[in-house]
Amino acid sequence: MNNEQKKMFTEITPVADIIEENEKATVYFEIPGASAGNVKVEVKNSTLTIEAESYLERHGKKVLFKRSFELSDAVDIDNIKAKTQDGVLTLTLPKAESAQVKKIAVE
Amino acid sequence: MGFLTKRNDRGIVSGGVMFHDLVRNWFPDLTDVLWKDMIPESRMSVMVEEDFVKVMFAFAGCKASDFDVESSGMFLTVRVARRTKYPAEEGDKHYTCNERCWNEYQESVKLPVPVIPAEAKAKYKDGVLEIHLPRCTKGKCDAKRVKVNA
User: Fold this and answer.
1) What is the pLDDT of residues A43-65, one digit of tens each?
2) Cα A99 off chain centre by
3) What's the complex ipTM?
4) Which of A33, A60, A87, B21 pairs as cysteine with A54 (C-beta 3.0–4.6 A)?
5) B112, A18 Cβ separation under 8 angstroms
């Protein structure tokens, strides 16, 4: 998104929940008014960025939900999955095999 | 942020009493001016059209049945209580960030024009509740003259 396009939006940081498990982490972003077609998720230089254009308006401009997280090397970037439902963007970030906790039986 | 992140773009959130909390107590009249941006913004936006009033209420992650909408002609109240179960921490499952609101929420607004509550319609899509309230137009909501008997 260039600077001209950015001026058309009011940028808002969406609230998020992150639930971490052994094999994956699930991130929920609240992006009311944005459908799947208006959501962009990208990973660049280990930084995950989500952008969602909403039809809601604030201060006379359309709302753009935008938030970034720096990912650790433990995330399997190639297998990140995203879906939207009822204004919530759900990202599933699987852990790389090498980063998963393995229990070792003690003999 | 555990394994997921090293840091996020919201910076560090510190607890305890902040400077602006102290100033708010000393100069209550100034706080609206100085910290206007810190007052939570309304989730409702109201648009007045020629024939109807459109109210949009942003509350993501709900079902239509979670909402309770009331209008008395000049006021509109929206209550929401999520019936979806709060994802609990169990086993190795735990929160590393928890910002979403799971409590009950209620907001009321005084409408800029009178409406007909009986003909109101509401639908929930993409995390936004849209309420259409027909405006009181001439003939529908005319003032009625009441005869005073002796």
Assistant:
1) 998 899 999 999 998 888 999 99
2) 21
3) 0.81
4) A33
5) no
